[in-house]
Fold this sequence. Notes:
- It is a single chain.
- With 352 residues, the chain is an alpha/beta fold.
- It has 14 helices and twelve strands.
- It has helices at 3-6, 11-18, 22-30, 37-50, 56-63, 79-94, 109-120, 134-142, 169-182, 201-213, 227-237, 251-263, 297-312, 341-349, and strands at 68-73, 98-103, 124-131, 149-153, 164-167, 189-192, 221-222, 245-248, 273-275, 292-294, 325-326, 329-331.
- The protein has a six-stranded parallel β-sheet with strand order 2-1-3-4-5-11, with helices on both faces. Strands 7-6-8-9 form a four-stranded parallel β-sheet.
- α8 links the parallel β3 (124-131) and β4 (149-153).
- α2 (11-18) crosses α3, α2 (11-18) crosses α4 and α7 crosses α8 (134-142).
- The longest helix is centred in the first third of the chain and has 16 residues, at 79-94.
- The chain is elongated and about 85 Å long.
- It starts with a helix and ends with a helix.
Amino acid sequence: MSDAQRHRPVMADVARVAGVSLPTVSRVLTGAVAVSPDKRARVLAAIEQLGYRPNAAARALVSGRRSLIAVLAGNTSLYGYARTISGIAGAARLAGYTVVIMVVESADAEVVDDAVNLVLGQPIAGVIVLEFDDVGREVVERLPHGIPVVSAGGWVRREGQVPSVLIDEHAGGRAVTEYLLGLGHATVHHVSIPLLGGAPGRTEGWRDALVAAGAPVPEILRASWEPASGYRLGLELLERPDVTAVFCGNDDLAIGVMRAFVENGVAVPQDVSVVGFDDQPFGEFWSPPLTTASQDFDDLGARAFERLRRVLDPAAVGAGSSAVIATPVLVVRGSAGPVGRGTAGRAAGGRT
């Protein structure tokens, strides 16, 4: 082990070289209390001399530029959240920024305020909020004015809100539904992801496609995020012999629905077509491979960072080309097909 590895510079070393007290070094680093110009200059010179790199605060003071980006999210385990964060982190790293992640446990105002205060206590340059759920919406509402903020989400925000980058879920939901109607299905049943202060964009797209086609609009089956929820609702759908096509709000739910069907002798897609949303990696390898709408969450995250970068530095090289809205792409695989004899048999006699 080298000498440098055995003894990395600490605040006490900075204080010794600068000829000031340890609290003075802390005050310079945090900026919480004013320090005389002479002492501040000596501390910053000692930081550079020793190569002391405690955190983003010191780097910001030395360079004159804050480089810490905070991401606030209601979840980090779900596919869309995780991939969006990955996109943010990758783009930020290439631009010389560091990302910290704050998980906000609920949309309760006190919980949100505590999380926001913790983030704002750091030397952040700006904030990206994942506005996929009610937690994200509440965070955006409760962030104080004057903080550089961009939201990343899946529906069109109201005018007058913070800058946003979006995936047009409405267009994706409509495309999926139109595809199924085009295969000859009289209507499309829908298993929805949780409501987000109103119907998700993909659900609204489903509804609008049915209305435009003059097709019946079935009652929405509301699920949670887990595949088990899709499985339970799949069992309910088995009791409805008129069901020939199901659009699920995400791929997890679609897998749960298909499992319920297959276990009970209903073939996909011969008896019932099932389509998901998101295009998770496992969907391609399911049996049958899952037809879905592909959302590029990595791209969403990268665009969110570039949008924030334009807020922080409008002249930043390469930060001016990101589109604000992207559209999901229909990915046709094996889980959806035309109405056939299998479905006709179900409609006439229930389970096959």
